[in-house]
Amino acid sequence: MIQETVFQKIKADIHSFARADGDPVNLKLIIRLFFITAGFQFVFARRVQEILEKVPVVGKPLRRIWWWLTCLIFSSEIAIDTRTAGGLYIPHPYGIVIGAATLHANVTVLQNVTIGKRGKADASDPVIGENVFLGAGCVVLGGVTLGKGSSVGANSVLLIDLPEGATAIGIPAKIRLAQNAQTITAIA
Questions:
Q1: Is residue 62 included in any domain, yes or no?
Q2: pLDDT tens string 30-81
Q3: Distance CA 8, CA 13 (A)
Q4: Domain for residue 1, yes or no?
Q5: Which of 4, 111, 158, 159 gives a 20 to 30 Å CA spacing to 52?
């Protein structure tokens, strides 16, 4: 994830949107993504921030200004301290708040998702694994880790780690393991 260049991330983002739409990557798709797909524009604005940060001397202030404008335009925020890999898919970029966290490759984030710390005493940031799906309105709080291929259902509140391939549903989230369909109630 950290070894990816910004351009590799953008390419992965394009492929992620194409996969979700069931379209091949071609010029028509790329034009549509850049000019009329708000979700891709939000993700691309994040990539522009990463490019701006590398500009000598004025990069960090420019990035902060661009971040602020992105927050105003989309009414959503991905914190500057958040680390993101390529393949980020956000189809409806409204009402999203992602605090300092790590998002691995091919993460899907739907509208009104909140990811962050539970409070100032929280020492670690949430870690969202590869191919994770975050349903509309879900909340992921604390230094939790979401395993590869896991899912958080719409409007669920997840406060504990989510194993690989598992699904979390409810308030507080109950975890359904993929292997044996066992349910674990989240007590935090």
A1: yes
A2: 999 999 999 999 999 999 999 999 999 999 999 999 999 999 999 999 999 9
A3: 9
A4: no
A5: 111
Greatest Cα pair distance, the chain, in angstroms, is: 54
Domain that includes residue 162, residue range: 6-185
Structure tokens at 124: 């670690």
Tokens representing 177? 């393991």
Sheet strands side by side (includes 77-78): 77-78, 97-98, 114-116, 139-141, 157-158
How are beta strands 157-158 and 139-141 bridged, if at all? parallel
Please indicate, yes or no, if residue 166 is contained in any of the structural domains: yes
- pLDDT tens digit string along 22-35? 999 999 999 999 99
Query: Among candidates 172, 125, 177, which has minimal Cα distance to 151?
Result: 177
The whole-model pTM stands at 0.90
CA 35 to chain centroid, in Å, comes to 21
The two tokens of residue 35 are 């000019």
Domain count, the chain: 1
Q: CB-based contacts of 46: which residues, under 8 Å, 6+ apart?
A: 70, 78, 84, 88
Residue 112 φ/ψ region, left for φ over 0, alpha for ψ in the -120 to 50 degree band, beta for the rest: left
The C-alpha atoms of residue 14 and residue 173 are separated, in whole angstroms, by 32
